[in-house]
């Protein structure tokens, strides 16, 4: 570790020690206090041979494809779903791109890069005692590092206790989860594959060519048919003698039904986003609130929170209600393929199978957790119910919005307190009249916490500020983490955007900006380096009026993919070599003017983007998700005690 890094190391370090029997290794605070997103510098920098196929071959193919598809020779982009993209390795025929011109330039570029990307050892950004703590944790079979719920920092807990909490809170519940034997799990995977193949065959005319191809490629290349179950720990609720509990998480990417779930999500979002209670973001919610004309003496704020919304939605009933709604309102959803959507929705929602350690479970009821369409499914189901009571309370509901399982509203009180109490009680009953769901509705007041906002109503005026959990450790990624160089601007721009756009009071914005500045200093950032970034971020946020239609309009570009390492050549050196040798070499035609030899169309490539991927962070190195990898202790099955 360099002297500069040592002198500017973070001073604000913390984690949650939840161990009860096994003592964590020493110096753990100095390691986990860096945060699970911290990236230790890889031992070796990138060298040319290490990155050749993933970087230079990929760049060459990317450039060839740009020429091949120049002028719109590719498929209809309106039918292309980038979330279903599958890399195929296909290369265009050589007569569709100027092979001699491109390859000579790329050869020169690669030769220059070979001189820059040389073998060299990385300079470590962990101190020796931090590296020992990391090694001890990775070798310790008794301890797990688990993220806390609400992003409140890393936790250390005994492996056995973690499994017991997951079983107690979730998987022992036989009303919600059924345990599959290994043979039944294999049969289930085979049945899911057969259903998926049949669905594609029956509804092929309703699918775009790219969607059909992507679904089939995903199905053929699938390695693990099932999702993976894990949990985060609710440390913010384990106070005043209350037991430690967990939030269930199901990770579906890579599973057999995940691509179909993406297709369902794309279709169902068109329905969910047309619900009357839908809003896109806290910024949009605040803008809508500030436009209201609020009677100063009658208005009160309220919130509501659904109890375990996902697992309590009656699956078959919800699918039937959504189907009926779509059929009866088909004119509202002309872009929704109703028949294939409902069939695919049923397939995804009733076949949520996942592993936990050496066990395989199937979710028996409720919204299929972790699947892509889970949020719009829950949104649409309850949104249809909301339509049944909205108009009945129009004189009282000045404002009503919902984000999945969280409701915010403004109630206009009746001058007669008896009538008002009756109407309020009736409204609460109607909110809770949706089968399967229970809502905890707050008392009406002048201030509420909703999502990441604290909303206050005074004299008919709405003010907002940021809401943060009291246990938030604010473990921003330290300055010496081996992250790509765009990290600091991204963190600053994102946080200051929230402060500048969500806080209505100027003094509040100033105080929070100073507080954020101090927190970054405590995480090892230097004031003179972050102050200019703050100034640019504030100026940009203050002029923000919302997303523009041109946000997605970009000049044509190619991508240089490489994993970031601090000892690699800086990006400006790579960009200069690209400009000198490929984009605009001296005495040669600029790249953007070279045409496709068969169609004479130009791809008009204006720039190269360096797309850095990141190395493994502490969360990856200490991941608790693959429980079977922690195989030195008792298997998860030894803790299973079904209710």
Short summary of the structure?
By secondary structure, the protein is α+β, with helices and mostly antiparallel strands. The chain contains 20 helices and 17 strands. Helix 3 (48-68) runs antiparallel to helix 4.
Summarize the structure in words.
This protein is an alpha+beta fold. Among the domains are: 3-41 and 124-256 and 618-639, no CATH class; 258-466, RNA-directed RNA polymerase lambda-3 (Alpha-Beta Complex). The chain contains 20 helices and 17 strands. It has helices at residues 3-7, 28-32, 48-68, 99-116, 128-139, 159-171, 182-202, 209-221, 258-272, 282-290, 309-312, 315-328, 338-349, 374-386, 417-431, 487-502, 506-522, 527-542, 571-583, 618-621, and strands at residues 16-17, 143-147, 154-158, 177-180, 227-233, 246-251, 299-306, 353-356, 359-363, 397-403, 406-412, 439-441, 447-450, 453-458, 461-466, 557-563, 607-613. Strands 4-9-8-5-6 form a 5-stranded mixed sheet. Strands 10-11-7-12 form a 4-stranded antiparallel sheet, with no helix packed on it. A 3-stranded mixed sheet has the order 1-3-2. A hairpin with a 2-residue loop joins strand 14 and strand 15 (461-466). It is globular, with a radius of gyration of 28 Å.
Write the layout of secondary structure elements.
Elements: H1 3-7, E1 16-17, H2 28-32, H3 48-68, H4 99-116, H5 128-139, E2 143-147, E3 154-158, H6 159-171, E4 177-180, H7 182-202, H8 209-221, E5 227-233, E6 246-251, H9 258-272, H10 282-290, E7 299-306, H11 309-312, H12 315-328, H13 338-349, E8 353-356, E9 359-363, H14 374-386, E10 397-403, E11 406-412, H15 417-431, E12 439-441, E13 447-450, E14 453-458, E15 461-466, H16 487-502, H17 506-522, H18 527-542, E16 557-563, H19 571-583, E17 607-613, H20 618-621
Parallel strand pairs: 1-3, 5-8, 16-17
Antiparallel strand pairs: 2-3, 4-9, 5-6, 7-11, 7-12, 8-9, 10-11, 13-14, 14-15
């Amino acid at each position: 570790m360099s002297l500069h890094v040592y002198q500017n190391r973070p001073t604000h370090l913390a984690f949650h020690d939840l161990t009860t029997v096994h003592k964590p290794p020493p110096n753990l605070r100095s390691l986990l206090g860096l945060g699970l997103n911290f990236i230790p510098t890889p031992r070796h920098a990138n060298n040319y041979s290490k990155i050749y196929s993933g970087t230079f071959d990929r760049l060459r193919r990317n450039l060839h494809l740009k020429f091949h598809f120049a002028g719109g020779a590719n498929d209809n982009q309106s039918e292309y779903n980038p979330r279903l993209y599958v890399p195929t390795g296909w290369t265009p025929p050589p007569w569709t791109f100027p092979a001699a011109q491109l390859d000579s330039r790329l050869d020169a570029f690669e030769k220059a890069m070979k001189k820059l990307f040389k073998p060299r050892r990385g300079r470590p950004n962990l101190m020796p005692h931090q590296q020992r703590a990391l090694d001890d944790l990775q070798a310790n079979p008794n301890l797990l590092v688990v993220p806390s719920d609400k992003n409140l920092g890393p936790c250390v807990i005994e492996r056995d206790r973690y499994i017991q909490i997951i079983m107690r809170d979730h998987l022992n519940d036989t009303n919600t989860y059924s345990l599959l034997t290994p043979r039944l799990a294999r049969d289930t995977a085979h049945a899911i594959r057969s259903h998926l193949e049949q669905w594609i065959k029956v509804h092929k005319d309703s699918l775009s060519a790219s969607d059909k191809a992507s679904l089939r490629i995903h199905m053929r290349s699938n390695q693990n048919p099932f999702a993976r179950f894990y949990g985060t720990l609710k440390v913010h609720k384990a106070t005043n003698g209350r037991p430690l509990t967990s939030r269930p998480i199901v990770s579906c990417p890579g599973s057999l039904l995940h691509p179909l779930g993406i297709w369902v999500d794309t279709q169902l979002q068109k329905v969910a986003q047309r619900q009357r209670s839908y809003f896109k973001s806290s910024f949009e919610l605040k803008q809508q609130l500030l436009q209201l004309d609020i009677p100063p003496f009658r208005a009160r704020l309220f919130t509501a929170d659904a109890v375990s919304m996902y697992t309590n939605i009656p699956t078959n009933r919800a699918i039937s209600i959504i189907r009926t709604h779509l059929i009866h309102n088909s004119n509202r959803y002309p872009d929704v393929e109703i028949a294939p959507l409902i069939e695919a929705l049923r397939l995804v929602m009733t076949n949520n199978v996942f592993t936990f350690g050496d066990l395989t479970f199937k979710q028996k009821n409720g919204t299929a957790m972790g699947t892509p369409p889970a949020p719009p499914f829950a949104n649409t189901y309850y949104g249809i119910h909301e339509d049944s009571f909205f108009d009945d309370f129009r004189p009282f509901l000045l404002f009503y919005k919902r984000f999945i399982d969280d409701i915010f509203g403004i109630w206009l009180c009746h001058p007669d307190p008896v009538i008002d109490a009756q109407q309020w009680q009736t409204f609460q009953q109607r909110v809770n009249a949706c089968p399967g769901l229970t809502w905890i509705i707050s008392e009406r007041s002048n201030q509420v916490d909703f999502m990441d906002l604290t909303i206050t109503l005074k004299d008919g005026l709405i003010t907002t500020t940021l809401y943060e959990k009291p246990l938030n450790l604010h473990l921003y990624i330290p300055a010496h983490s081996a992250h790509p160089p765009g990290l600091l601007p991204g963190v600053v721009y994102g946080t200051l955007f929230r402060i500048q756009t969500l806080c209505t009071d100027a003094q509040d914005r100033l105080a929070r900006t100073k507080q954020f500045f101090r927190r970054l200093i405590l995480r090892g950032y230097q004031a003179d380096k972050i102050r200019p970034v703050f100034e640019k971020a504030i100026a940009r946020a203050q002029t923000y009026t919302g997303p523009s239609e041109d946000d997605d309009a970009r000049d044509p570009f190619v991508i240089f993919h490489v994993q970031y390492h601090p000892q690699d050549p800086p990006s400006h050196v790579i960009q200069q070599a690209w400009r000198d040798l490929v984009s605009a070499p001296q005495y040669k035609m600029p790249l953007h003017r070279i045409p496709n030899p068969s169609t004479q169309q130009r791809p008009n490539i204006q720039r190269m983007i360096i797309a850095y991927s990141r190395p493994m962070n502490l969360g990856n190195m200490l991941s608790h998700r693959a429980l079977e990898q922690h195989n030195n202790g008792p298997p998860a099955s030894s803790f299973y005690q079904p209710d």
